[in-house]
Amino acid sequence: MKPRLLLSMLIVFITLIGYSQDRGYFAVSAGPSFPNGDFGSKDVNNSAAGFATTGAIFDLTFAQKFGKTIGMTLMLRGQANPIDGQPLVDELYAQYPTFGWRSEATNWGIGGFLGGLYGSFPMGASGKVTFDTRAMVGYINATSPDITLTASSVSGSFWVQSQSTSAGAFAYLLGAGFKFGVGKHLSFLLNLDYMGANPEFVDVTTITSIGGYTTDTYSQKFGTVNVGVGIGVEVGIDC
Q1: What is the CATH number of the domain that holds 41?
Q2: Which of 68, 86, 136, 143 could pair with 109 as two cysteines, CB 3.0-4.6 Å apart?
Q3: Longest dimension (CA), the chain
Q4: Residues spanned by the domain of 39
Q5: Residue 21 binned pLDDT confidence (cut-offs 50, 70, 90)
Q6: 38 lies in a domain?
Q7: Is the residue at 66 inside a domain?
Q8: E strand or H helix at 166, and its extent?
């Protein structure tokens, strides 16, 4: 993103906050991340399978209402999902049962910035509990895992490694949840969201223990259902 565009967006955001009539809040939350679709597929015959397993998210969120129900929200998200390499091992063992097979892998990683609109709807006369919805778009940087497959026999061992690389992509997020007021300035948050993206990993290098290597380019469709539990602090300014 160009610095001039980023500065313009920041000025617009500050101006909107200045006209706001409600307090905003800053929240820290974390929780499990469940892979969905191709990202969570363990089918070795699916070329788009990500073999991802349940991971975790960590969010820093700012929200500011512009009226009674509608507002703007910004989020910094970090996410990690481990790899299940056992289906690969099982497939290799089925084809070459005389070898011992082992799989080692790092995590899928996602870090990104998203922004969008949210709605906050009071539940009950006290207004301490609200039902919140949000729709956001943004940009993520995704990191593919290092995956190493090792074959062992009485004559020695051999390994093949697909090396980690990074890729940027457009992302979207749809979510809903509840905010419970637990004090004058504190609140407890419970959120459920779905985040999707489709980064393209370019020139992914695969190396072998005998010195050979190849490169490949592929897209990995990300889709995760995420649960976040956190604490919010009011930080807006009454106007």
Answers
A1: 2.40.160.20
A2: 143
A3: 77
A4: 3-83+109-140+167-199+219-234
A5: very low
A6: yes
A7: yes
A8: strand 166-181
Closest CA to 121 of 113, 109, 133: 133
CB under 8 A, 24+ apart: contacts of 209-217: 209/157, 209/158, 209/159, 209/160, 210/158
How many domains are there within the chain?
1
The residue to which tokens 């393209």 are assigned: 200
* Local structure of residue 38 (DSSP, 8 states): G
- Within-domain flag for 58: yes
Q: Do the domain assignments include residue 135?
A: yes
Split at pLDDT 50, 70, 90, the class of 17 is very low
Q: What is the pLDDT of residue 4?
A: 54
Distance, CA of 224 to CA of 230 (rounded, Å): 19
| 3-state SS, residue 109 | strand
98 phi, psi to nearest 5 deg: -80, -5
Question: In the numeric block, which tokens belong to residue 119?
Answer: 């709605």
Residues 6 or more apart from 56 whose CB is under 8 A from it? 30, 31, 32, 33, 79, 80
The Cβ of residue 43 has, within 10 Å, a number of other Cβ atoms equal to 11
Residue 179, exposed/middle/buried by CB under 10 A (0-12, 13-18, 19+)?
A: buried
Closest-CA residue to 114 (of 174, 70, 155): 174
